Amino acid sequence: MANRADVLVKNMFTGGIQVIRKLVDGISDLEMTLEKGNQEKIYLPGPEVELVIKAPAALDIKESFTKVKSDVDLTISHSRTHSSWTFKIEPNDLPPDSPATVNITIGDDEPE
């Protein structure tokens, strides 16, 4: 099973987004803010680790744009209450050493 991935997160919202990596015990070992147009590569070391992306404060994500391209199966959930998305690697049939890349674009990716 491919159980790790490099995740490239790109923010296209006008405000900054929070990117949080949560370990199996719920404790976060990485927290950062990405401003509009910025991107960051984040390593997911296993299927027990979650990547949480929080939209800018008070933004209702009901109709927000999210684009995901992935080489590995993911569980993706979103919470309108917390204005966030959660990404997690799913059990899969890929070979263990398969390189896995995930690209996530959050916010309006269309020209203004």
Q: Which class best fits the helix and strand makeup?
A: mainly beta
With strands numbered from the N-terminus, the spatial order across the biggest sheet is 3-2-5-8-7
**Helix-strand topology string:** EEEEEEEEE
Mean pLDDT: 90
Biggest sheet architecture: 5 strands, antiparallel
Considering DSSP H and I runs of 4 or more, what fraction of the residues is helical?
under 10%
Tell the overall outline: globular
What is the first-to-last residue Cα distance?
41 Å
* Radius of gyration from CA coordinates: 14 Å
Low-confidence spans: pLDDT under 50, at least 5 residues? none
Work out the strand percent: over 45%
- Summed up, the helix count is 0
Number of strands: 9
What oligomeric arrangement do these chains adopt? single chain
Write structural notes for this entry.
Helix content is 0%, strand content 48%. The chain is globular, with a radius of gyration of 14 Å. The model has no long low-confidence stretch (mean pLDDT 90). It has a domain at 1-34 and 43-51 and 60-74. The protein has 112 residues and is an all-beta fold. It has no helices and nine strands.
Quick synopsis:
With 112 residues, this protein is mostly beta strands. It has strands spanning 5-11, 17-22, 28-34, 39-44, 50-54, 66-70, 74-79, 84-89, 101-106.
Quickly list its features.
112 residues; five-stranded antiparallel sheet; four-stranded mixed sheet; single chain; mainly beta
Question: How would you summarize the topology of this molecule?
Answer:
Elements: E1 5-11, E2 17-22, E3 28-34, E4 39-44, E5 50-54, E6 66-70, E7 74-79, E8 84-89, E9 101-106
Parallel strand pairs: 1-9
Antiparallel strand pairs: 1-4, 2-3, 2-5, 5-8, 6-9, 7-8
